[in-house]
């Protein structure tokens, strides 16, 4: 087995185990901290797939941003309130059914997909170069040419969210 | 591998003498003597302190969350140390040559927030919790002006790779592959027609290639102080209010590790600042006609002299910045929380945004 393959299995294992901890621990804070390892594992898998830019964005957005905010909120509610935040299970019956159906759909669709028909799989099988050294340049050029409209729209959406959150915060301060 | 072979031992030695230096500088500013007893001029004072620290009991408070409490210092140190992986040290000793260099650095360093949160929450003490809350609020806020000032440099140099940014700032600009025809002009302006590629020295540093980057560097420096929780931004560990902030409950080796990360973070941002703005491993001395100071004080990339000069210049610049950080700490009083936030959001962030606009325009003039 190649070293990269070994790394892949290591990080996949990390993702699965930490995701299971998220599911089964009653302590919400442990779940949040365990989610860090899930996100880092996913970032590592991105790196192994040659998507360096996505990997770092994953860390910045999810670990550095969303997760810190989550833990921050939990800490404020948990310790200052004096009540422990504990997860409970609701709607177990329908939850299990929905999960099983989702698994069935995924398994069925994965088993019917013809992966061998994909261009990049064929080129990889014939020794072609699939993974480029870096994806930044390609992403940058595509963002500024072909996908400029979605890119700008996302920017405007974020700006609206920023103004909205500032407005809500200001109202509560009055 | 450079990170483990060079930066880990260097970091440990640096921290021992940086703490000694900090105490001596503090003493000098406050007209005291500082440590004088252990070794010549008290040089071994920190070594003695460290030996004492290592022998201390590793106390975990009874009410603390044991797992989080024990893991937190490791996470803080690892996330700061991981940042060193992409730093180039000399022209041929470049660390991880990841194309995403700076971006990775900013991402991985923001992870130490999680360690701080773990430490503050896990300690189960109100001082630790408030220290952690303040620290995280501060670090997250100051990441924005920090990131924007880094973005200014990235816009000027058109790359995220720290080694490429380094090569652009000196007389070896044309050395790496794909840069054969590139030239550096005075202030980056091609219209002035003064080619400074062969002159090198300070004239090719980023603060000189785009003069407004000097203001960007000031923003970078101020926000990096806040990122390290250093005075005047040391509210998270304000000793008069919070005992010691998020690491109040730590003792012995784990406390030493948190201290080590704080000094490592100072060194990391000092390295990053000198790489991005102050010419990286390039010499500050320019070639003046036949007096080729730049060529004499920087060996050809790949040679032993090139490595030694490069490491010498980069490390000297970084250590000098660390000294300035200490000087600032003992000069300015601590900010209040509201002053801290208004400085970040009302002054530094808008200024950094304006600089980004200027950098974009300047970049057009550079072509």
Structure description:
With 174 residues, chain A is an all-alpha fold. Chain A has 7 helices and no strands. Chain A is globular, with a radius of gyration of 21 Å. The mean pLDDT of chain A is 83. Chain B has 367 residues and is an all-alpha fold. In chain B, strands 1-2 form a two-stranded antiparallel ribbon. In chain B, a hairpin with a 2-residue loop joins strand 1 (287-288) and strand 2 (291-292). In chain B, helix 5 (112-122) runs antiparallel to helix 6 (126-157). The chains are: A mainly alpha (174), B mainly alpha (367). Chain A binds chain B through residues 29, 33, 36, 52-53, 56, 59-60, 63-64, 67-68, 71-72, 75-76, 78-80, 133-134, 136, and chain B through 68, 98-100, 103-104, 106-108, 110-111, 113-114, 117-118, 120-121, 124, 129, 132-133, 136, 140, 143, 160.
Query: Which radius of gyration of chain B do the C-alpha atoms yield?
Result: 21 Å
The rounded Rg of chain A comes to 21 Å
* Average residue pLDDT of chain B: 83
CATH domain fold name of the largest domain in chain A: Four Helix Bundle (Hemerythrin (Met), subunit A)
Residues in helices of chain A, as a percent range: over 70%
Order of helices and strands of chain B, N to C? HHHHHHHHHHHEEHHH
H/I helix tally of chain A: 7
For this entry, what is the oligomeric state of its chains? heterodimer
Molecular shape of chain A: globular
* Count of domain modules of chain B: 1
What is the strand tally of chain A?
0
User: What is the residue-mean pLDDT of chain A, rounded to a whole number?
Assistant: 83
Largest interface: A-B, 22 and 25 residues
Q: pLDDT under 50 segments of chain B (min length 5)?
A: none
- Largest sheet descriptor of chain A: none
Q: Give the number of helices of chain B.
A: 14
